[in-house]
Structures are given as C-alpha cells and as structure tokens.
Predict the structure.
Amino acid sequence: AHLGVQMTHDIPNHTGGLATKVFEYLFLSVPVLMSDTSEKRTIYGTLADYALPNNPKAIAVAIKSVADDYDNKKVLAVVNRKIALESYSWEGEAKKLLSVYDECLAL
C-alpha cells in the first residue's frame, strides 16, 4: 500500500477510538491520512496527515499532496514507525503500566 486512509465521521462513537488499521499502517511504514479531528490530532500528532472527514475535495487534495511528495512521505513513514513502536507497542504500553503500578505501590 502507498497510503493508509482512515476517514471517520466527526461523531462521538468514531472520534475517540483507536483504529487497529492505523497502527498497522504505522507499523508497516505506510504514510497515513486520517480524519482531521482534535481527538485524532491529540492521539496521533505528526504521525499522520489530516483532512476534513466530510469534505471529499479536502480528502482528494490531501491524497494528491501525499502523492506529490511521496518520497519524503515514505521516509517520514519509516521514522513514524519507530515513534509508533516506542509509543504504542505492547512493550511500550507495559512499561507505562508498570510505572503506574510503581507509583501506586509507593503511596
């Protein structure tokens, strides 16, 4: 795949969830385009490009932007994979969870 796309409507059931396919794209070093919502930007930050989810023209412009700069987007996707592995892998999550347990036990 040259681009992973995850567009969801800006409604509560869709905005706060973590889509498995986004992590698959990231872990496979595929550039990601997703819905431009504050929740998605908070969660994924610079790991993705964004477009307004209910605006086909904005989505088309974003896809063209990725295509026009694909070589750089692919290099960035490799960097993003490393960031995603550190931030969202089971090993990374285990470290965070153990840290919370340590804090609780120290109380």
User: Anything to note?
Assistant: The mean pLDDT is 90.
